[in-house]
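Postdoc handover notes: sequence design on the structure in folder B. Input tokens:
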């Protein structure tokens, strides 16, 4: 076996097998140490001894079978037999994403158990599965955002080939696999990177989660190689179709080629003939990330749209605490985001006392990932309650229709499609002083919400390190049947999205023009203009009380010439648990039910 490690601060590096055999590696001019080790075999466990002193795991280990503090293990990445030769990869356009956490997606919390659920996701209408981070981290449970071994899928979910089998089966079902990756920090526990080089870290920037990483200072070449190699690794050895970059506002880089552009380039190169895409979470809403490189951008494919979540949440709950305070949830906010992406594109943002975002009017609608739930936002509330528990069933059905039929790329968080009763809380199996610090930090973060700042409320908030906190977040998949009406609604909406040509062109291709109008304080319409004359659609969303309209002084309500509007779909259909829907347009009167969304299409007017 050949080994290579970057350790520029060291004079001597030896590879030590668990058998006791030791081999000194040769120092390269670049600061790498490398060499062929005859005694090493597949499944051999090993560490590196640095300068004749302590031994540490391989920072680029492919597997840590005993966790990040234990020995590394040699893995043969070519043993697995792929059967996805016909899979052409995926692009962001036209995807419907399901975000899942492997440890809580099933009761077993393994790759194999999650793999068994892939046919159900495909049947629902999901086209891409986004997996929360899997880089090895300490303890027996965690979200994965404190990973310390970027190349080693955590031992908690199975072996690397189990992960490959998950991807292979997904491709066989027509599902893309997206991996959430964290390149903005290393976790605090099991982090041995500084033992190899201080140049991995930067003191020039402040990072929210510990030490900032060095992408643009002296010695940055080691970390840049690590990140680009890691991005390529997921495409080459695991056939991953997309990457979701976590919290890119904490990736600091003034290099001529930003590290995000570099990793996206290497990820696509490694994918070869397969299509591949990269999406970013970016709190500052920097549209530059999603522009082409030749247009001055970083060449990523899309961006998470937190604005959409925040406004929609305020709209259906009426609560605007903390970072929701600059959103009113008004119809015009939602219309504007369907047309233009971010709501804040450089305007003053009072919550941060600074401008937020930058112009993004040139981006395509499908470049924005839209959601009303995700791992962060569900957990950022008391008890990890899901949004359907915080509003009325009617409002939640209506806003679900909006996000699934809207132009953009919709994302559902695990269990959202059947109104899972399982909460999703922050959990991390840290011990000792770190456990206390994590719990304290979590409560301080939640204190920005006035409803969560009271002592009695915080005293009852689940401890992130309590195993029961983790266990209570596991999905009960039998609720697909228990909550069959709403599960059926999600299926029908996704069928509409892909089978109605007008909705499909707007939602997936960005070729169909749309416009919108406010009809009342909590009611608005979105009109999808068909390619053929008269082949339009109206989506009307009413999050308020029932509305009767006699005067229709809004041109977007006018039916195409020679046609009348007829109901095509309603969130208040009794089969979804609704209360029925009156005929929306009849005899010059428009009636819009409360807490509902309806889709309307034209029909030829009967001659008199």
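Designed sequence:
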């Amino acid at each position: 076996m050949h080994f290579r490690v970057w350790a520029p601060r060291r004079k001597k590096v030896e590879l030590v097998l668990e058998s006791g055999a030791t081999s000194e590696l040769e120092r390269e001019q670049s600061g790498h140490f490398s060499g062929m080790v005859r005694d090493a075999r597949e499944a051999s466990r090993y560490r590196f001894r640095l300068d004749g002193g302590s031994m540490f795991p391989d920072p680029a280990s492919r597997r840590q079978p005993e966790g990040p503090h234990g020995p590394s293990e040699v893995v043969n990445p070519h043993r697995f037999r792929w059967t996805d030769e016909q899979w052409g990869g995926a692009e962001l356009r036209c995807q419907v994403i399901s975000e899942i956490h492997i440890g809580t997606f099933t009761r077993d919390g393994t790759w194999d158990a999650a793999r068994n659920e892939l046919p159900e996701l495909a049947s629902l209408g999901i086209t891409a599965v986004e997996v929360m981070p899997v880089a090895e981290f300490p303890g027996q449970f965690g979200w994965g955002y404190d990973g310390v071994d970027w190349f080693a899928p955590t031992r908690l979910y199975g072996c690397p080939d189990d992960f490959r089998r998950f991807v292979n089966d997904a491709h066989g079902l027509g599902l893309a696999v997206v991996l959430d990756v964290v390149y903005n920090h290393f976790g605090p526990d099991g982090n041995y990177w500084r033992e190899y080089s201080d140049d991995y870290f930067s003191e020039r920037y402040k990072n929210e989660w510990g030490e900032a990483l060095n992408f643009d200072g002296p010695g940055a070449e080691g970390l840049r190689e690590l990140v680009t190699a890691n991005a390529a690794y997921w495409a080459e050895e695991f056939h991953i179709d997309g990457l979701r970059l976590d919290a890119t506002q904490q990736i600091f880089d003034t290099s001529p080629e930003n590290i995000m552009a570099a990793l996206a380039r290497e990820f696509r190169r490694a994918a070869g003939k397969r299509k591949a895409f990269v999406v970013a979470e970016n709190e500052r809403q920097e549209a530059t990330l999603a522009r082409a490189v030749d247009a001055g951008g970083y060449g990523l494919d899309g961006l998470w749209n937190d604005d959409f979540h925040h406004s929609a949440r305020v709209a259906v709950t009426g609560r605007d605490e903390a970072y929701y305070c600059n959103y009113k949830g008004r119809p015009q906010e939602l219309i504007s985001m369907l047309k233009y992406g971010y709501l804040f594109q450089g305007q003053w943002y009072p919550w941060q006392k600074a401008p937020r975002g930058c112009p993004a009017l040139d981006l395509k609608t499908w470049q924005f990932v839209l959601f009303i739930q995700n791992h962060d936002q569900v957990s950022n509330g008391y008890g990890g309650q899901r949004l359907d528990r915080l509003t009325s069933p009617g409002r939640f059905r209506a806003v679900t229709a909006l996000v699934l039929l809207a132009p953009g790329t919709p994302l559902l968080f695990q269990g959202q499609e059947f109104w899972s009763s399982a909460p999703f809380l922050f959990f991390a199996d840290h011990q000792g002083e770190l456990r206390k610090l994590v719990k304290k930090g979590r409560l301080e973060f939640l204190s920005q919400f006035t409803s969560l700042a009271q002592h009695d409320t915080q005293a009852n908030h689940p401890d992130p390190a309590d195993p029961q906190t983790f266990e209570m977040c596991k999905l009960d998949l039998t609720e697909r049947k228990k909550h069959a009406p709403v599960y059926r609604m999600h299926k029908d909406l996704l069928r509409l999205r892909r089978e109605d040509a007008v909705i499909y062109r707007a939602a997936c291709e960005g070729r169909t023009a749309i416009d919108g109008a406010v009809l009342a304080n909590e009611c608005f319409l979105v009109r999808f203009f068909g390619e053929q004359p008269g082949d339009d659609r109206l989506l009307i969303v009413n999050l308020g009380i029932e509305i009767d309209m006699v005067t229709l002084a809004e041109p977007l309500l006018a039916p195409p010439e020679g046609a009348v509007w007829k109901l095509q779909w309603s969130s208040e259909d009794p089969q979804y648990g609704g209360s029925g829907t009156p005929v929306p347009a009849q005899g010059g009167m428009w009636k819009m039910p409360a807490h509902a969304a309806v889709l309307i299409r034209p029909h030829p007017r009967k001659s008199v």
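Context for whoever picks this up: Residues 439-464 form one domain. Don't rerun without checking with the PI first.
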